[in-house]
Write a structure and sequence with these properties.
With about 575 residues, the chain is of the alpha+beta class. About 50% of the residues lie in helices and about 10% in strands. It contains 19 helices and eleven strands. It has helices at about 1-10, 70-120, 125-140, 180-185, 240-280, 290-310, 320-330, 340-345, 350-365, 370-385, 390-400, 415-420, 430-435, 440-450, 460-465, 485-500, 515-525, 530-540, 540-550; strands at about 20-25, 25-30, 45-50, 60-65, 145-150, 160-165, 190-195, 210-220, 225-230, 405, 410. A five-stranded antiparallel β-sheet has the order 6-5-9-8-7, with helices on both faces. A four-stranded antiparallel β-sheet has the order 2-1-4-3. Helix 15 packs across helix 16, helix 16 (about 485-500) runs antiparallel to helix 17 and helix 17 packs antiparallel against helix 18. It is rod-shaped, with a radius of gyration of 43 Å.
């Protein structure tokens, strides 16, 4: 285009005087001659006017005055040509600037369009920062190293959240103690340092680094963290990189802030649920820790089912594992509505009631040849037994039929309400008391249905309500059968029984693992428990118990990683 203007100007000048354009003192375009010589501005027949190609590079328009072209005509022509060419250059620069700005905005919008779904898909802080660092790597920014530091909740200390490029086990925490890091965090403005050796705020906290770009991740009230890309080389980073990384950081800012708030709410929710479970367990010292152990075992069981892949009809996602965990923690919360004397009943008749029976037997012994001491010993044995001897039950029944008539008075040895408790063939709960206990799954559902749980836990209440159901319909509270019971409830039933029988209770000693295995096998063979799930549980019992220990030290948001021991 410049050549066309120069050619047109030469024609307008009558084709007599050659013209040229120079760039940084070198002739680059000529018109009216084939030679690049003779355009030196030091020659007497040469006139020139300056032009500026950009803010750095300049040149000139030059004319050789030949016969027929006076200096005055040459100056007028040159001024016009110089003005026209400068206008053309300025217009081209403006066009390119607009195009570059539009391209930059397009790239920024494209980056936003791609990164927003990736970064904003989770409220878990770990997922957010990993998505952010992955976006940095995907964009192929200069620098082979990357770090994200996050502000610890409730403190002013920044801790490393994620990194790439550094050797495993590298201590990167000194980065957060550098004056450079602190100043950027406080100012809230990103910086490029292309030569760290010349920056007085850097004292080599991480040896070997040559250049760095630091971008704050800020919420409206504070700096939540810093995104850092670095390299051992110098001079790699440009302003465009800072703009692009600032765009990514702005996308992450909302997610990071939401994640902090979400994790705070989650911690509070977990603490409340834990306290609720402990409050239930504390009503009976013999069941203390039961809810927590069931939750740990259930999550571990689900994880093993995922590993095996062929023991269950489904695989369990991270959300499913959390749902199972919360169901385990809360499965017995309905016991809060069970009467204390039923929930913690250790014998068929209370010690106070047995004192009344003893006093009555002593009185009866004074008016007859009744061996009250031997009779009371037998009744006491029946009172404490889980499964009394048939002969003892027969003796108690006969004792209940005896009546002493003395002085017109009628005195029974044992009364109907006492016989109801003492003549139980198994356990220490009467039918009404057993119904009272069997209310707790439905009561748990009633209590929890009004609590807003975070997450999509659609099955949690069903798991809790069904954890005492049995496949043959003998369970409670609804007597469900087979496919009416969801798989999570079947799993919960297995781990609930296992923990219950292996822990000491007021009415029985703790069974050994081998005894518990026999009990579960027997229930599975009788069709009460899911046979396939029970077999998988027992075959992998050692691993399930080991994984359940890992669940204890794992945050609820990380349950899907309990099988990867190296990350915990």
């Amino acid at each position: 285009m410049l050549r066309n203007i120069l050619r047109r100007a030469h024609e307008l000048a009558g084709g007599k005087s050659p013209l040229a354009i120079t760039y940084e003192g070198e002739v680059v375009i000529v018109e009216g001659t084939d030679s690049y010589d003779g355009f030196s501005e030091a020659l007497p027949n040469v006139l020139s006017v300056p032009i500026q190609f950009d803010i750095i590079h300049g040149g000139s328009v030059v004319i050789q005055l030949n016969d027929g072209c006076s200096p005055e005509e040459g100056e007028r022509l040159l001024d016009f040509i110089g003005y026209s060419i400068q206008e053309l250059i300025d217009m081209e620069q403006a066009r390119r600037s607009i195009a570059e700005e539009a391209l930059s905005k397009y790239r920024e919008l494209a980056l936003l369009h791609r990164s927003v779904p990736n970064i904003n898909t989770s409220l878990v802080m770990r997922d957010v920062v990993r998505a952010l660092i992955d976006e940095c790597r995907r964009e192929n920014y200069p620098g082979e190293l990357g770090m994200i530091f996050l502000l610890e909740p409730g403190s002013k200390q920044y801790r490393l959240a994620v990194q790439y490029g550094f050797p495993f086990g590298s201590n990167l925490q000194p980065m957060a103690d550098s004056d450079l890091f602190i100043e950027v965090a406080e100012a809230g403005h990103g910086e490029i340092i292309n030569d760290l050796d010349k920056d007085t705020r850097w004292a080599g906290e991480l040896p070997g680094l040559g250049a760095m770009i630091i971008i704050p991740i800020a919420s409206p009230n504070r700096c939540e963290g810093l995104l850092i890309l670095a390299s051992e080389n110098k001079g790699l980073f440009e302003a465009a990189h800072r703009r692009s990384l600032s765009t990514l950081a702005s996308v992450a800012e909302i997610s990071v802030s939401n994640s902090f708030n979400f994790e705070g709410v989650q911690k509070l929710m977990n603490a409340i649920l834990q306290a609720l479970a402990e409050a239930i367990d504390s009503r009976d010292p013999f069941t203390a820790g039961h809810s927590e152990r069931v939750a740990h075992l259930a999550v571990a069981f689900a994880h093993v089912l995922n590993e095996k892949g062929d023991c269950a009809e489904m695989t369990f996602s991270d959300e499913d594992l959390k749902e199972i965990y919360y169901a385990g923690i809360l499965h017995d919360v309905g016991k809060i509505g069970i009467k204390e004397d039923v929930l913690t009943k250790r014998t068929r008749l209370s010690s106070r009631h047995m004192d009344v029976v003893k006093a009555r037997f002593q009185l009866l012994g004074q008016f007859s040849d009744f061996d009250w001491s031997s009779a009371f010993e037998t009744v006491s044995s029946v009172n404490k037994a889980m499964t009394p001897e048939e002969g003892d039950l027969k003796f108690v029944k006969e004792l209940g039929e005896k009546v002493l008539h003395e002085g017109g008075a009628r005195l029974s040895y044992l009364y109907d309400d006492e016989l109801e408790h003492l003549l139980l063939k198994y356990g220490n709960l009467t039918m009404d008391e057993r119904k009272e206990i069997q209310r707790h799954p439905a009561e748990s559902e009633r209590i929890l249905q009004h609590i807003p749980m975070h997450g999509n836990y659609n099955n949690m209440l069903a798991i809790i309500r069904q954890h005492h159901e049995r496949l043959d319909g003998s369970g409670y509270p609804d007597g469900l059968k087979a496919d009416e019971i969801i798989i999570q409830s079947r799993m919960m039933a297995i781990v609930d029984i296992y923990d219950a029988v292996t822990q000491e209770r007021h009415y029985k000693p703790a069974y050994t693992r081998s005894e518990a295995v026999k009990i579960l096998k027997k229930d599975a063979e009788a069709g009460r428990l899911d046979h396939e799930l029970t077999a998988c549980f027992l075959e992998n019992l050692e691993r399930i118990e080991a994984l359940s220990e890992r669940v204890k030290i794992t945050r609820v948001s990380h349950l899907s990683e309990i099988g990867n021991f190296s990350t915990l």
